């Protein structure tokens, strides 16, 4: 999904006429035997994402201002970057409005009822739609749990 996401961010940047993302690279640090670091490296390799595994010595040479514990290695994901959250959210909301959508901000979702029409109850009112996109971040499972759904977040 990463490759497709970067394309979509670039398209939104073009449509919004402003920079929403800056590619900086992402340096992950950990002990050589760290399983999480190994899993991330395997995923990057599988997805053919440009990255580098850096030994302790390579880290010292490349990043002399970082003091690392003995045996720590690095994984440099060259595709990593920063999303300018406020600008990105504003651009997404503007795009939704341009496509005829309505943005309701500041309403807490308290209940979701599936059906031919999905009903969403908020602290302000109820809405119905043919489909629903949930972008609740860490609160997603709290919303989905009453429906018997749990996402591995």
Describe the structure.
It is a single chain. Strands 2-4-3 form a 3-stranded antiparallel sheet. The chain has a 3-stranded antiparallel sheet with strand order 6-7-8, with no helix packed on it. The protein has helices at 2-16, 35-46, 56-62, 85-98, 140-144, and strands spanning 21-23, 26-31, 51-54, 72-77, 81-83, 109-113, 118-122, 126-129. The chain has 153 residues and is an alpha+beta fold. A hairpin with a 4-residue loop joins strand 6 (109-113) and strand 7 (118-122).
CATH topology of the largest domain: D-Amino Acid Oxidase, Chain A, domain 2
Percent helix, as a range, is 25-40%
Shape: elongated
Distance between the termini: 16 Å
Please give the order of strands in the largest beta sheet.
2-4-3
The largest β sheet comes out as: 3 strands, antiparallel
Cofactor: FAD
GO molecular function, one term: oxidoreductase activity
Keywords: FAD, Flavoprotein, Oxidoreductase
Family: Belongs to the MSOX/MTOX family.
